[in-house]
Amino acid sequence: MFAGEPFGLAAKLLSLACFAVILAINIDVFNHVNRITETPDMTDPLEEAGITVVDSREPGKTEFRSGYRSLARFDELEERRSIRLTAHVPLSRLLRPGEQPPEAEMRELLAKTRANYFAAQECKHLLKVLAKECVVDTANARLDDGIVRVEAHLNFVQKAGFGTLNTKNKWSYSTAEIDLTKNPLTTTVNRSAGDRRGLYRTATKHCAEIRRREGNCALSGLWIDERPDAKSGGYRLTARAEYGFLAPVN
Amino acid sequence: MLKKIALGLMLISVAACSDSDSKPGTDPANTIGNELRGYSYHSDVMMGKGRQLHWVQDAVSGYRRSGTDMLPAKVTKLKRSGCSFPRPKDGQAVFAAHVEGGVQQSSIHHFSKRQLAKRAESFVRAYVKYKGKMPSGMTFTAGSAMRTINAVVTETAKPVFLVLASGSDVVWNIQKAPGTTIDRIVVLSGRMAGLANVPQGTKVHAVYGKGLRKCRVQPARTPEKHWRFVQNVAELGTGADKLKENRKRASSFGFWLRKNFGIAHKSVIGDAELSNVLFGDMPAAGASLPFRPIAEAHVLLSPADHLLVAPKTDFEQASRNLVREAAVRAAGGDLEKLVTGVN
Known about the structure:
The structure holds 2 protein chains of 2 kinds. Chain A is α+β, with helices and mostly antiparallel strands. Chain A contains 5 helices and 8 strands, in the order H-H-E-H-E-H-E-E-E-E-H-E-E. In chain A, strands 1, 2, 3, 4, 5, 6, 7 and 8 form an 8-stranded mixed beta sheet that branches. In chain A, a hairpin with a 6-residue loop joins strand 7 and strand 8. The longest helix of chain A has 30 residues, at about 10-35. The termini of chain A are far apart. Chain B is α/β, with parallel strands linked by helices. Chain B has helices spanning about 1-20, 115-130, 210-215, 230-235, 240-260, 310-330, 335-340; strands at about 35, 40, 45, 55, 60, 75, 95-100, 105-110, 145-155, 160-165, 170-175, 180-190, 195, 205-210, 275-280, 290, 300, 305-310. In chain B, strands 3, 4, 6, 8, 9, 11, 13, 15, 17 and 18 form a 10-stranded mixed beta sheet that branches. In chain B, strands 7-10-12-14 form a 4-stranded parallel beta sheet. Chain B has a two-stranded antiparallel ribbon with strand order 1-2. In chain B, helix 2 (about 115-130) packs across helix 6 (about 310-330). The longest helix of chain B has 22 residues, at about 240-260.
């Protein structure tokens, strides 16, 4: 509309500048509000128990180092202590006994909805092996040719104890990342649930080893990825785990 | 006292029913808005040949804007025709319009199963997020109201052959002048299509939805400098490929129009959002034709998975229920299980 007007370009530039200023003000206000409403709890339960961890926070900052919060709050459900997994399951297995699959247009909806049940079921498996508490944070799904690819994000509290710490020592926070599938596994829709359980056991064993060596261990994250494998016609399963532990400072 | 109130209400309702919507007191050209693909116009603006703008009230008497409370008397299926398009006969006056959409809502609401599923997905996501206690203002509906476009036909010298194309879900409401003969209407829409007040004896050839693609017809308007889309390409340098593709499609559609109906693309009336088109000359002062609203009309409509002819509030309630039902079915009969995680 401004094309034929002599001040068309100037008017546009002015409006763009105004928009930028308004946007900047809004972003600043939003960030300020965000800081007020979402300030994380900076208290350290270990510190309150008399345990001194010399490097729990980012140097010169009040923020905890990555992963430390979930270690310090070992017995609580912590959003950063999570298991992120992808898995494939036939749509038919998400149906109840005797239930017919819905019409084509509604299948993706069913898959996405029942991904929540799949994730809840996975929590039950975790409770048998690795966790004493487990909740589904998010579950999503995509349906492709009758196979549902589920992406689940679970929060958990570890079943095995953290270990012992004393107040005499000072402690240093360390992390370790371990590849649980140095040789990637090949799996199928029929085997993957069992293979995942195997990975949960492996992740637990590694933590037990760290605990034996260092006196304590917390599993802070587990990533399980399952992708179609053209070679085998099945799926390629890879997994890694992250652990946190405290070592005495000499 | 009660009698007085009742009489008052009656008078108000009679006044509301009999009043036609009055003409805005300005030049129609002053109501233009800039859209991505052209201009949008006030709901009462009517475009005629040479893109001349008029107020529809100057051509028809008793004009009423279409609203979601105007319920048609009858809705029947608009049959899908084949890809062999009829040609105008010698001596017929051919007119064409192509609009992306209009601003007048109708009471005809629709949605597909796919749209319903998508909204139910959003519902489930929110239900899980809020653990079943969704904020009171949060509602999930699927579907939208079809738009009404009034096609005012005043040509009386020759039988008329109309080509009506739309980019979105549109009901063409035919306003025929006394003495006008509409021989045939060709309706083209890549989505839903509807026709209201089709004169008796008028033949209809309708190609809509996927059928249009099957016929390899892709209605497209020629991009112009005032389109925001074109301006964006010029100023930001992005989307040049889409613009090129749009020009190509418009050129092909123009060729197709000329080949099939013998009309030039430039003579096609239309724009991005236009609610009234005029085929023929403006009626002389005092000779306006009587307006036929969608209310109580017979509407021919392309099929839809879910079709709800109802006022907006009733539609929203029904749509909300359907979305919830779909979510409940997907959850295996009980939404609460989504929160407890027990199936």
